[in-house]
Amino acid sequence: MSSHATPDAGATGRKPVTLHRLREMHAAGEKIAMLTCYDASFARLLDDCGVDCLLVGDSLGMVLQGQPSTLPVSLEDALYHTRAVARGNRSAWLVADLPFGSYEASPEQALRSSVALMQAGAQMVKLEGGGWTAETVRFLVERGIPVCAHLGLTPQSVHALGGYRVQGRDEAAAATLKRHAAELADAGAAMLVLELVPSALAAEIGTARPDLITIGIGAGPRCGGQVLVLHDMLGVTRGRLPRFVRNFMAGAASIEDAVRLYVQDVKAGRFPDPELHGY
Ligand code: KIV
């Protein structure tokens, strides 16, 4: 988006992606392609390339701000980036993260923070954790706010979890994850990000609750959709990346080609590859 570009209707010409549409896609077995997004220019590009859902993730703390974790991200930060993404987006479904400290105190605090994110342009809010979060999810959903839950490796709890490691490996941990997923679905969560969990466990969760759209990141191919951090899949992130990341810029002629390839490979079930990217 050059500063002098003339706004137009958007390249895909697709109808806005709604929650109803996402549920239809999921019921029909069409995989949902999600990417993180933090600014207007990328929102426009990702939307034009057919990305179904944009996530204003609190990964913005690490990716944009150079923080060591997502913990320092404030609600103000999330609002700033949600407004920017909403301005650039035309038709993708827009999910915004509730940052650490903006929803844990009470359902009322979560409602206040969610209202601010929705007024900034989000169409769904995402919060991390299971158990205690079910009450908050129900409180938000009853008040008209679509909710995406997030289980497995929940980065806001990185210190409690002892690092960025695969979750739900043993029987007890897997049983807890399955119980939390069922409770969140019962509370009305429409979507569930599963991060760094064994592929078989993620598949089991999705099969048990077809009403819940599971979105995997390091959770194998048998989720309802996939998400990656934009800078990881574009090969911008330095250092050693987790095995679930694929650099879609490798061999691509442009960022647009890389994003289109991501959408195609998610939809065709070619990404993630269980051998290369799974646990
Ligand atoms: O903040 C984020 O980018 C996320 C994704 C990794 C799912 O929560």
Automatic annotation (TrEMBL):
InterPro entries: Pantoate_hydroxy_MeTrfase (IPR003700), Pyrv/PenolPyrv_kinase-like_dom (IPR015813), Pyrv_kinase-like_dom_sf (IPR040442). It is found in: Cytoplasm. The keyword Transferase applies. Keywords: Cytoplasm, Magnesium, Metal-binding, Pantothenate biosynthesis, Transferase. It catalyses: (6R)-5,10-methylene-5,6,7,8-tetrahydrofolate + 3-methyl-2-oxobutanoate + H2O = 2-dehydropantoate + (6S)-5,6,7,8-tetrahydrofolate. Pathway: Cofactor biosynthesis; (R)-pantothenate biosynthesis; (R)-pantoate from 3-methyl-2-oxobutanoate: step 1/2. Its EC number is 2.1.2.11. GO terms for cellular component: cytoplasm. GO terms for biological process: pantothenate biosynthetic process. It is an enzyme of class 2 (transferase). One of its GO terms (molecular function) is magnesium ion binding. It comes from the Bacteria. Mg(2+) binds at D58, D97, E128. The active site is at E195 (proton acceptor). Belongs to the PanB family. Homodecamer; pentamer of dimers. NCBIfam families: panB (TIGR00222), PRK00311.1 (NF001452). This is 3-methyl-2-oxobutanoate hydroxymethyltransferase. It comes from Caldimonas thermodepolymerans.
